[in-house]
Design a protein that fits this description.
heterodimer, A: alpha/beta, 3 domains, two-stranded antiparallel sheet, 11 helices, B: alpha/beta, Trna Endonuclease, Chain: A, domain 1, three-stranded mixed sheet, 21 helices, 10% strand, SpoVR-like_C (chain B), Spore_V_R (chain B), Ycgb-like (chain B), SpoVR family protein (chain B)
């Protein structure tokens, strides 16, 4: 007796739990690989999985086994030239253990020093952002929100045909039919009984007029019964949708970068990675993320990505010009009620001295109150200048929403990024 | 000459065609007296096959990271094309569950049905080890019970606690089998009902054994070197607990470990039961694969003889079959030990040859077999042997010559390896002995037993490792001892004993201080 069962439609990923357990167990190993990968990878290259290797000895499942030594006899196939009593030099290092058949019960590919496997893109990004928290993730308050989303809200009597709730409609129709037919049926039954009674009388006692009357009545009632509609317009019920205001799931990220002569391409690459990490991070938390690139030297300009990263300028630096532009763009295009606003600024710390004070005032007074978060990274191995000091006082005023760090080389980015966004335990 | 009327041609399959072939196979298998469990053939996708692989082919299993590791390894190997997924997976259960992958060609599906649903299936039902040690009808129920129980424990005691316990049990699972006693089969419900009783009862017993206040009249044991004051007449002198060495480490732990909670004992038991279930498979690789290959070969040829498959399919089959039973030589880059399919297939085919067409050599070596009814002999061989004894009994000089087997003696007291025997008159028997020994589990795995539990003193546990031909333990002994220590709760020691009774080496965990620095 044989059964065939088609299981192809069954759930895949039966091992998902076990896979996750494995990843959890070797979290530290995997994290190390992921961190290396983030530092190594090119900027456009974050959105894919990663091959991870773990030293096999770290994840072995030990069992009692024979070690090398002692005396053993190994049977092997494929003898070509040996005869009994031949003496052979020991193969270097090992003891030719390959001949021992499926020795022991090491269930892993033997002889592998590294246990290698591939993380999926999601797993990879999970590890990249593991333990990080988007600052002030509390979505924009509901007040003055234009963003709405239709949600189900029971059933209603009117609506469009596409939203008919069939079950409810049929139930209404059924109830109505019962209600409308019951009195007619009752009358009909009474008429039928009367007729039967009349007809069962002795022929001489029958009243032909009465019988005719009853017959007519029955016919009328049967017609009425049939006339009760099976379904009527007022039986129809529709799934009701109402528009509910939603916390904003949109975010806009302003990338602000100094492109004055002092910023080299290496500086820009570092900045780019930082922006990219932030972008990926936001993307995982909001449904929609828009990017605005603002670059500045002595004047600020909104540009596209290509120009942002790769065109070169010369001249001095006025940071406040960029802050003013960001402020303008926010007012024009991104009303804070509907957008979560993030600014990331990268610079080498150069600024015209008297401009730094302007920057601070601008930030504290106009910009910070409207922003979710402001990050500033200074890419320089040198001592800080006026801008840093002014920013420090901004940070003191908005400790929750303003973060600044120094980056010296590419390898610093990831740790700095983690530092900036690490989950805050206390409240 | 039969007119060819193949059931289907080409490489595409559908369920009607599979069913048609299956019923033909059933008819032929019946002719050959293959007694089988009902077949449950499941068509699955590649992804599901990898899942099945990762859970050692069990349809349900408890969760553990090691299965995840297995999955990742399989996935990686498969993606890189290092490994085709084995084209079949079959489970020793009643009904016998076999998986067919959807992307197999028609030929593969027919081959797999012949191999798994008739070959392996009849082996599971017929071989004495499986008959004695496994209970095909209750295994799936038991797995369901195990999965539920482990999940409940995870909820109640935390995933980490359960995981550590399972790690420890897995390290010892090869020593969680009874080699001589047969356990009585019970169903999952029964198991569940008993489990509660057992938990209470067991704890009570363990408590008795480990009472804090020593019993003034020790029933059995004074561990070695304990003061004789308590037993001045020496009535119980030399007694140990356990009185006899115990080979089933997990069983001993389940019943005797002082500190385990009842749920922990139950999990030890689950791992032990599953190890026991897989125990026959570990001892019959050559026979099982050889038997299945022998029958897929025979059945496919019958299908061809009757014209039910066409030449194209047959050629594809022969190519696949040849690859499966290929044995690369020891010096080939593809060599990875003796291929159990090759050896097993060669031996079963040779038994048939000896019966049908015996030579003088066969008559001399196998007087009982030569010229008998081949079907009787192969059935007899399948039923009554395991790899070790099967090779000892049936490995013929012809197979040794065909495979050009030879032995190499590796003695660490000699500078050079020595060729011990080759495929000649003087070598046949020695090669046969060596090969049989090579498949004996007792030789493949170190011989380790519970020697003594110091129930009056420091509660330490002492194991004995009896060295075979002076072969020492690998360094993995330390991590395994650590796991054992975790289960036992008190120091564990191991004495590596030479065959002539001297102690070659002692291990212990936790490590003594000065040695701890060295590790």
């Amino acid at each position: 007796m044989t059964y065939f069962i088609d299981r192809r439609a069954n759930a895949k990923h039966k091992s998902a739990v076990n896979r996750q357990r494995f990843l959890d167990r070797y979290r530290t190993h995997i994290k190390r690989s992921v961190e290396e990968a983030v530092n190594r990878r090119s900027i456009t290259d974050m959105e894919r999985g990663e091959k991870v290797s773990i030293p096999a000895r770290d994840i072995s499942e030990p069992v009692f086994q024979h070690g090398p030594g002692g005396k053993r006899t190994i049977v092997s196939p494929g003898n070509k030239e040996f005869v009994e009593g031949d003496r052979i030099r020991r193969p270097g290092g090992g003891d030719g253990g390959g001949g021992a058949g499926e020795g022991g019960s090491s269930n892993q590919g033997e002889g592998m020093d590294e246990f290698a496997f591939t993380l999926s893109r999601e797993e990879f990004l999970d590890f990249v952002f593991d333990g990080l928290e988007l600052p002030h993730l509390e979505r924009k308050a509901l007040v003055d929100l234009d963003e709405v989303r239709p949600v189900r809200a029971g059933v209603s009597r009117d609506g469009v045909p596409a939203r008919i709730n069939i079950v409810r409609s049929m139930r209404e129709a059924y109830a109505r039919r019962i209600a409308m037919r019951a009195p007619i049926r009752r009358a009909l039954r009474e008429a039928l009984e009367a007729l039967e009674e009349e007809e069962s009388k002795d022929p001489v006692l029958r009243n032909p007029a009465r019988i005719a009357e009853l017959r007519a009545e029955i016919e009328r009632l049967e017609k009425r019964l049939e006339a009760v509609p099976y379904i009527d317009t007022y039986d129809l019920r529709y799934n009701n949708l109402i528009n509910q205001p939603q916390p904003s799931s949109k975010a806009v990220m302003f990338c602000v970068m100094d492109v004055s002569g002092s910023m080299t391409q290496a500086h820009k690459d570092i900045a780019k990675r930082f922006f990219l990490l932030l972008y990926l991070f936001l993307e995982r938390n909001y449904e929609k993320v828009e990017l605005v690139f603002v670059r500045h030297h002595t004047a600020a300009k909104e540009v596209d990505e290509e120009e942002f990263f790769y065109s070169r300028e010369t001249g001095g630096t006025i940071v406040s010009s960029a802050l003013t532009l960001v402020d303008e763009i926010i007012s024009k295009r991104y009303p804070p009620g509907q957008w979560n606003l993030y600014v990331a600024q990268a610079s080498d710390g150069d600024n015209w001295d008297d401009d730094s004070v302007t920057c601070r005032e601008q930030l504290v007074k106009t910009l910070m109150p409207r922003l979710q978060y402001y990050t500033y990274v200074e890419i320089t191995p040198h001592a800080h200048q006026a801008l840093w000091e002014e920013y420090e006082s901004v940070a003191a005023e908005y400790p929750e929403r303003f973060a600044m760090r120094q980056i010296v080389e590419a390898g610093d980015i990831y740790p700095v990024f983690r530092e900036l966004f690490k989950r805050r335990v206390s409240h | 000459m039969t007119r060819r009327k193949p059931i289907a041609t080409g490489s595409d399959w559908n369920f009607e065609v599979l069913e048609a072939y299956e019923s033909e196979l059933a008819r032929l298998a019946d002719e050959y007296r293959l007694d089988i469990y009902p077949n449950q053939i499941e068509i699955i996708t590649t992804e599901q096959m990898m899942d099945a692989y990762a859970s050692v082919g069990m349809p349900v299993g408890y969760h553990h990271w090691s299965f995840g590791k297995q999955f990742l390894a399989v996935e990686q190997a498969y993606r890189r094309g290092q490994m085709g997924l084995a084209y079949e997976l079959v489970i020793n259960s009643d009904p016998c569950i076999a998986y067919l992958m959807e992307e197999n060609t028609l030929m593969m599906q027919v081959l797999v049905m012949a191999h798994a649903c008739y070959g392996h299936n009849s082996f599971f039902k017929g071989n004495y080890l499986f008959r004695t040690w496994t209970d095909a009808s209750s295994i799936v129920d038991y797995l369901v019970f195990a999965r539920k129980y482990v999940a409940e424990c995870e909820e109640r005691h935390g995933v980490t606690a359960v995981e550590q316990l399972l790690d420890a049990c897995h390290a010892l699972q090869n020593y969680g089998v009874d080699r001589y006693k047969r356990p009585s089969p019970i169903s999952a419900e029964e198991e569940m009902r008993r489990q509660n009783e057992r938990a209470e009862y067991l704890q009570a017993q363990v408590n008795t054994l480990w009472r804090t206040i020593p019993d003034r009249k020790p029933a059995d044991a004074l561990p070695d070197g304990l003061d004789t004051e308590e037993d001045p007449l020496g009535l119980h002198g030399g007694g140990r607990y356990p009185p006899e060495p115990q080979e089933n480490l997990l069983y001993f732990i389940e019943k005797n470990a002082p500190l385990l909670a009842p749920w922990q004992r139950e999990i030890v038991r689950i791992v032990r039961k599953l190890a026991q279930y897989f125990y026959p498979q570990r001892q019959t690789q050559v026979m099982n694969e050889g038997w299945a290959s022998f029958w897929h070969y025979t059945l496919m040829n019958r299908l061809y003889d009757e014209g039910l498959v066409d030449e194209g399919l047959m050629l594809e089959f022969l190519q696949s079959h040849t690859a499966v039973v290929n044995q690369p030589g020891f010096d080939s880059p593809y060599y990875s030990g003796i291929n159990p399919y090759a050896l097993g297939f060669a031996m079963f085919s040779d038994i048939k040859r000896m019966c049908q067409d015996p030579t003088d050599e066969d008559r001399e070596w196998f007087p009982d077999t030569a010229g008998s009814d081949w079907l009787d002999v192969v059935h007899f061989a399948m039923r009554n042997f395991k790899d070790e004894s099967f090779i000892q009994q049936f490995l013929s000089p012809k197979v040794i010559r065909d495979l050009k087997l030879f032995t190499v003696v590796d003695d660490d007291q000699e500078d050079m390896l020595e060729v011990g025997a080759i495929h000649d008159e003087r070598g046949y028997r020695r090669i046969r002995d060596s090969l049989a020994t090579q498949y004996a589990l007792s030789v493949r795995e170190p011989n380790i037993q519970v020697y003594a539990a110091n129930i009056r003193g420091d509660r330490s546990l002492t194991l004995h490792h009896v060295q075979d031909s002076r072969r020492p333990l690998a360094r993995s002994v330390y991590p395994v001892m650590r796991h054992l220590h975790q289960l036992w709760g008190f120091p564990v020691r191991m004495e590596s004993v030479l065959e002539d009774d001297g102690v070659a080496r002692r291990y212990q965990w936790p490590l003594p201080d000065e040695e701890a620095k060295g590790h």
